[in-house]
Amino acid sequence: MSADRLPDTDLTRHRRLREQGSLDRADLEAILDAGFVCHLGVVVEGRPLVVPTVYGRDGRQLYLHGSVASRSLAGGAPVCVTVTHVDGLVLARSVFEHGVNYRSAMIHGTARKVTDPEEKLAGLRLLTEHSAPGQWTYARRPDRKELAATTLLALSLEEASVKIRTGAPEDGEGPDAELGLWAGVLPLTSVWGAPVTDPALPPNHPVPEHVARRGGTRHG
After folding, report:
1. Domain ranges of the chain
2. What is the mean pLDDT of residues 157-162?
3. C-beta atoms surrounding 155 within 10 Å
4. May I ask the CATH architecture of the domain 18-89+96-167?
């Protein structure tokens, strides 16, 4: 199999809406790069648990952040991680044909708890720079006590399922087209606002350039 293609497995095979599925690794990477919050699903003490957490990635691994107190981040367990971006509501002529334009990725695998200090620091750097580029070199980095209080999981990106839906409603050429009702897409975009300075800082404290330049830019 080409390195640019995702494997088609029992867990990742698209059984419904196959036309929206993708095996292109570039689509997976684009979805991951567009966000920084994922949902981690794992079974804990016989019950499903889904936890939102931040992530970062390198070429073949996803790093997930958490506290040592989190039961979901123990490591060594099968997990499912999802990332979803909503791009708009698809409003059709009939409620049945309504839908959502979206980009989603679902990653399956066994989470590995990162214990090597160098890999842990490197993973936290990836995670920090993914969500806030420039912040790792600007802020104080974690000390030994803080590293000990932080759990970092690594998850292979080899087994993943990608789905993408774009475009207009699908009933424009059906019987409902004769109803004369409006139909279309209501786009949804997310934009970073202007930075809000911590009131504990002195008045007119300058905002770092790497933070200030994100204000007004699109997220996702």
Report:
1. 18-89+96-167, 189-220
2. 94
3. 25
4. Roll (2.30)
